[in-house]
Specification:
By secondary structure, the chain is an alpha/beta fold. 41% of the residues lie in helices and 25% in strands. Helix 12 links the parallel strand 10 and strand 11.
C-alpha cells in the first residue's frame, strides 16, 4: 500500500487572502489560504462583518479604525509543512511587498524548512492585490492543471507576464481612507474637494505601489467611471481582439457591482467575467464600505 508521500502531486498552491478569491475557486484549485490578522478595536462591539461594523459605528459617532497585520512566519510555515506532505513543490503568492510584509514573512518561513524542502518552495511577489492577485493565482492554477510547463517554467511565465495583471479601483467616501491614516496629510483635503464636485480618483497598483491614474466624474455612479477607465487602459489590447479576463471585488456595494457586471456583460469587447467577491476585510477595513474594484488579465 502506498503512503501519501508516494502519492504526492507535482505542484501545490498557497496564497495569502489578499487575492479575494471566492471559496469555490479556492476549493476547486486546492489553494491553501494564509489569512491576514485583524484587530477590530472598538468596532468589535458591533455585529456583522467589517463593513456592517463600520456603518454601525458611524451612526454612533465612533471612529472606525481597524488594525491589520500580515501573516506571521509561523502561519506560513505551518501551511508549507502541511502542503509538502501532499505536493512535491509549492508556489506561494503574496500581496505586493510594497504594501505589506507578507512576502517577507513567507520568505523567512521557507528558511525554517529542512534544506531539501527549501528548494521545493517558491514565494512569488505578485506586486498585486485583490482581483489582480486573484487572477494571477488562477492563471498559475491553470498552468499547473495543464501540466505542460515545469515548475521553473511556470515561475518564468508569471514573472514575464506580471505586468499583464492590472486593476483600477475607487472608493465610495474619502473619509474612510482618511480615517485609516495611510495617506499623506495633504491628500484627504484634495480628495474631499474633488468629492464636492462629484469627482473621484481612479486608483491602481503601479510596480506594486498604490498610485492614482486620474480623476473621473461619478454622477452616473462609480461602476460607470471604473468601466470608462478600464476601456481607456485596455484600448490597445482590445483592438487585437484578444480575450480579457476580468474580476470584480467590492466592499459591500451590491448595487454598483450589478451595474459593473452588466457593463461587462453587454460590452462589445471580448471580456470574460471570471469571478466577483467581497474585498477581504483587511483591505476593506481601510478603504471603507462602497469601494469597487475591477481587475483584469490581458
Amino acid at each position: 500500500m502506498k503512503t501519501k508521500n508516494e502519492n504526492k502531486k507535482t505542484i501545490g498552491l498557497v496564497s495569502d487572502d489578499m487575492g479575494d478569491l471566492p471559496e469555490d475557486l479556492i476549493n476547486n484549485n486546492n489553494i491553501s489560504i494564509v489569512p491576514f490578522k485583524i484587530d477590530y478595536g472598538n468596532l468589535a462591539q458591533f455585529p456583522g462583518d467589517v463593513y456592517q461594523k463600520i456603518r454601525a459605528a458611524e451612526k454612533e459617532g465612533i471612529a472606525s479604525l481597524i488594525k491589520t497585520s500580515q501573516p506571521s512566519i509561523n502561519d506560513f510555515l505551518k501551511v508549507f509543512r502541511e502542503k509538502l506532505e501532499y505536493y512535491e513543490k509549492i508556489l506561494c503568492f503574496t500581496f505586493s511587498s510594497k504594501l505589506s510584509g507578507a512576502y517577507n514573512s513567507a520568505l523567512q518561513a521557507v528558511k525554517f524548512l529542512p534544506a531539501e524542502a527549501q528548494k521545493q518552495v517558491y514565494v512569488f511577489d505578485t506586486l498585486a492585490g485583490s482581483a489582480s492577485k486573484g487572477l494571477m493565482t488562477l492563471r498559475a492554477a491553470q498552468l499547473v492543471q495543464n501540466a505542460q510547463l515545469k515548475f521553473d517554467e511556470i515561475i518564468q511565465f508569471l514573472q514575464k507576464n506580471i505586468a499583464n495583471f492590472k486593476l483600477v479601483a475607487t472608493y465610495d467616501k474619502p473619509k474612510w481612507i482618511e480615517a485609516s491614516g495611510r495617506l499623506p496629510s495633504f491628500i484627504p483635503f484634495a480628495l474631499n474637494q474633488a468629492e464636492a464636485r462629484h469627482i473621484k480618483p481612479m486608483f491602481t497598483l503601479k510596480d506594486g505601489k498604490l498610485s492614482i491614474l486620474g480623476f473621473k466624474k461619478t454622477l452616473n455612479g462609480v461602476a460607470a467611471a471604473l468601466f470608462e477607465e478600464f476601456e481607456k487602459q485596455t484600448k490597445s489590447i482590445r483592438k487585437t481582439g484578444q480575450k480579457i479576463k476580468v474580476a470584480i471585488t467590492h466592499a459591500d456595494n451590491p448595487t454598483e457591482l450589478e451595474k459593473l457586471k452588466n457593463l461587462i456583460k453587454n460590452s462589445q469587447h471580448n471580456l470574460e467575467l471570471v469571478y466577483t467577491n467581497l474585498i477581504c476585510f483587511p483591505i476593506g477595513g481601510h478603504v471603507g464600505p462602497g469601494t469597487l474594484l475591477l481587475g483584469w488579465e490581458q
